[in-house]
Specification:
The protein is mainly α. The chain has a single domain, classed as Urease accessory protein UreF. Helix content is 69%, strand content 0%. The protein is built from twelve helices and no strands. Helix 3 packs across helix 8, helix 3 crosses helix 10 and helix 5 runs parallel beside helix 8. The longest helix is centred in the N-terminal third of the chain and has 32 residues.
Length: 228
C-alpha cells in the first residue's frame, strides 16, 4: 500500500498540472529555434540528448541524490551546500531566475498540503527551499518514501517532457513527432541515471555552452513566447 501511494505521489510531483510554471520556460530553446539551430526532429533530439548527457547526468541528477540523502539524514548543512552549488551553476540570469521562480512556486504548493505542518523542514529549511526547485522536489520525494532512483528517473522524464512540449509549439513540431522524440530520448534516461550515481562530489558540474549562449541571447530577443 505504501509503495503504491509513493508512486502516486511521484506522479503528482512530476505532473504538468503541478503549478510551478514549467510550461513558461524554454531554457534558451526559443532563441535556438529562431536562429535555426533547432528546426526538425533530428536537431531537437541532438540538442536534448546533449543536455541530458552533459548536464543532467553530471549536475542535476547527482545533486538530487545528495539532496535526497541530506533530507533523509536531516542534514541541513549538506542540503544547503548542494542547493547553493546547483544555483551557482546556472549560467545566465534567466536560468537563475527560472530556478528561483519555480522553487518559490513549489514551496507554495507544499505549504498548502494537508500534512505540511508535519514537515518541519518547510520552515527550518525555507531559505534553501526558495533557491531551487530541486530542493523541494528532493525533500518531497524523501518524505513521501519515493525510491531515490525512481525520483531521478521521474525528474529526468519531467524535464524531457517539458522540453519536447516546448519544441512542439516552437518549431513547430507535430504531436506525433513529439511523441516519437519522447519515446526515443526516454531510452537514454536509465543510462543517465546510472552515471549520476557514479559521479563523485568533486566531479559535479556541467557546462552546456550552446544552451547558455541561447539563454543569454533570449534575454533580449525581440519577440518571444517564453520567459526563458
Amino acid at each position: 500500500m505504501q509503495s503504491e501511494l509513493a508512486s502516486l505521489r511521484l506522479f503528482q510531483l512530476i505532473s504538468p498540472s503541478l503549478p510551478v510554471g514549467a510550461f513558461t520556460y524554454s531554457q534558451g530553446m526559443e532563441w535556438a529555434v529562431e536562429q535555426g539551430w533547432i528546426s526538425d526532429p533530428q536537431n531537437l533530439s541532438d540538442w536534448l540528448e546533449t543536455i541530458l548527457n552533459d548536464s543532467l547526468s553530471w549536475l542535476e541528477l547527482p545533486i538530487l541524490i545528495r539532496l535526497y540523502h541530506a533530507s533523509k539524514s536531516k542534514d541541513a548543512e549538506k542540503f544547503t551546500h548542494w542547493n547553493q552549488i546547483l544555483l551557482a551553476c546556472r549560467e545566465t540570469r534567466e536560468l537563475r531566475q527560472e530556478e528561483l521562480n519555480r522553487a518559490r512556486a513549489l514551496l507554495a504548493v507544499l505549504n498548502k498540503l494537508p500534512d505540511a505542518a508535519q514537515w518541519h523542514e518547510l520552515f527550518t529549511w525555507r531559505e534553501a527551499l526558495l533557491k531551487t526547485q530541486l530542493a523541494g522536489f528532493s525533500l518531497s520525494a524523501e518524505r513521501w518514501q519515493i525510491d531515490c532512483r525512481q525520483a531521478l528517473n521521474a525528474y529526468a522524464w519531467s524535464w524531457l517532457e517539458n522540453a519536447v512540449t516546448v519544441a512542439v509549439k516552437l518549431i513547430p513540431l507535430g504531436q506525433s513527432d513529439g511523441q516519437i522524440a519522447l519515446h526515443q530520448l526516454s531510452e537514454k534516461i536509465p543510462a543517465a541515471v546510472d552515471l549520476a550515481f557514479r559521479v563523485k562530489d568533486e566531479e559535479i558540474g556541467a557546462s552546456t555552452v550552446a544552451m547558455a549562449i541561447a539563454s543569454s541571447l533570449h534575454e533580449t530577443q525581440y519577440t518571444r513566447l517564453f520567459r526563458s
